[in-house]
Amino acid sequence: MPSYMREGSTMKANPVVAVCGATGAVGQEFLKVLHDVDFPASQVRALASARSAGKQVEFEGCGQVPAGPITIEEMTPESFQGVDIALFSAGSDVSKELRQAVVDAGAVMIDNSSAFRMDDDVPLVVPEVNPEDVEWHKGVIANPNCSTIEMVVALAPLAKISPIKRVVVSTYQAASGAGYPAMIELLEQTRAYLADEEMVAEKFAHPLAFNCIPRIDVMMEDGSTKEEWKMVAETQKIMHAPNLGVNATCIRVPSIRCHGESVNVEFESPVGVNQASMALAFAPSVEVMDDPEQNVYPMPAMLTGKDYVYVGRLREDSSNPNALSFWLVMDQIRKGAALNAVQIAQLLLPKE
Amino acid sequence: MPSYMREGSTMKANPVVAVCGATGAVGQEFLKVLHDVDFPASQVRALASARSAGKQVEFEGCGQVPAGPITIEEMTPESFQGVDIALFSAGSDVSKELRQAVVDAGAVMIDNSSAFRMDDDVPLVVPEVNPEDVEWHKGVIANPNCSTIEMVVALAPLAKISPIKRVVVSTYQAASGAGYPAMIELLEQTRAYLADEEMVAEKFAHPLAFNCIPRIDVMMEDGSTKEEWKMVAETQKIMHAPNLGVNATCIRVPSIRCHGESVNVEFESPVGVNQASMALAFAPSVEVMDDPEQNVYPMPAMLTGKDYVYVGRLREDSSNPNALSFWLVMDQIRKGAALNAVQIAQLLLPKE
């Protein structure tokens, strides 16, 4: 993992890390990932709303922090004194409200919300794709949308073979993208369906059990959803490719926490399947699982808790000699959110 | 509904109809649809394997046939004497085995299997798209694959605005595509998952509950699946467009009997959203459900038993000025199989 230093300031080798939104699905995963990568923290603090303050969250330890429960503190503008890295996943409103307090405290906010992703003064970073962008941060680094991360991790190694002209992607997004209560809602709806009881839909506009819902996030003026717009705008920003064409259709499906993506990529010139497969096999955070004859391909239900973007069904496109199609699966909470954010934090660590 | 007469022979106004494979999901639906369209049959016979012979199937009546149970007969080469129309859904092997017997008996086989679809002497018909092709049948008319029917019903009215150059489609296919036992398997796997028991997968290569399986049917040499190949070859044949580019990715999702499709269409020239929406609204067997701001769009769980192809999320494609994207849902057993076949039979009826 490369490391980068913020110009004019130096991240401590053993920073104090605050997990902001510690009770949510991503917040819980931040704590797991900090342990899994053994992040060299000197302290890990857990912040959440007043409602959760005083409760404890389990933590398995990392760096200089021993394993043991952490008592949740109420997250206020005063929370960030002494914090070096604040991992945020508490929604856009909370991120906007606390941004200045984090920056004033001299901490770096790594924000999982969509609040600042398209701001000109905020880098939007996928460490495998544009790690160098952390260098110009001004106190805030944005973590991209999960569906975008999944796609660009696979596109970046392919774009090195031939520039990408256009991507047509359709997603198969799990309940987890709408948070932990949405995962519970899917399971509860499914139970109700099997028991012939009425299904309750609160987190989704319609019951998701045994269904597909073709709208994620709010509608934009051009008829796309904001989720679809994110896959266009964020991909262009991360890949430094403002003219890259992306057409996204984002569909919620009844899987629990891994997103699938059906991707068609048109290159400037023909790219062979073997060449693409090799590039993906050697790319960071990508694993090729591609032996469909033997029923080997990535599947959401089998990749929960995994750290990579998994690629299968790679093949030529008979409708365009410059195009390839493939299928991706990624744990939406892990590489799609918490892991990517912690990897951004790793980029900030001083070179050893 | 237009009607067509077979050259050199005339279908009776009140034909004898044999439902072949009467105990399967599509066979059962044949009987429902014959009733629903009040097909003017003089007799309806139910044929199935020896195992089911002697059992009874419910029938609500149609034409000159009163409501009441029908006793299943064993399907043999001798079964077709006196039959005028044989609706087949008993798998490719059975269709191949019995084709000659059906033709020798002077009946028309309308076959739901993939056995003859690409044969040069067999029309492949979607009544809304290429009804005229029934005229040159030689005793066998093929019913297309469900995913193909869904797509071409929506493509045909759009192709009248501007010729279609290329289609990129990703499917969200329900368990029903693999038959009635597969639907039961999905429900049983789901129950087992919720009860923390082991899931059994026999109809699918992997458990489908809370999962997506990116392979349907056998693998072809070019890395596509046969299901994907069907969407290419069948679409070209039905639309009489041998050079139409189609890139299909076919994914099984845990819905029960309606298929979703995310479709991107590139035309020869720009087509406006309003123009396309109007063409679809007036197209036969299409219903536009497109008010996503109000959460109105087609969804698999809400369209079971419906007869149309439902279109929503119609929008421009910022990556290509000549392209549009939209989302389709269709009941796979109904318009995707049984209804389309009965509509082909309706085309054969003599003009009144």
Question: How would you summarize what this structure contains?
Answer:
Two copies of one chain form a homodimer. Chain A has helices at 25-36, 92-104, 146-159, 180-194, 226-238, 273-281, 334-348, and strands at residues 16-20, 43-48, 56-57, 70-71, 73-74, 85-88, 108-111, 140-142, 164-173, 245-252, 258-267, 286-288, 309-316, 323-331.
Lay out the secondary structure:
Two copies of one chain form a homodimer.
Chain A: E1 16-20, H1 25-36, E2 43-48, E3 56-57, E4 70-71, E5 73-74, E6 85-88, H2 92-104, E7 108-111, E8 140-142, H3 146-159, E9 164-173, H4 180-194, H5 226-238, E10 245-252, E11 258-267, H6 273-281, E12 286-288, E13 309-316, E14 323-331, H7 334-348
Quaternary organization? homodimer
The percent range for strand residues of chain A is 15-25%
Determine the number of helices of chain A (DSSP H or I, runs of at least 4 residues).
7
**How many strands, which pairing sense, and closed or not: the largest β-sheet of chain A?**
6 strands, parallel
Radius of gyration of chain A (Å): 20 Å
State the end-to-end CA separation of chain A.
12 Å
Helix coverage percent of residues of chain A? 25-40%
- The shape of chain A is globular
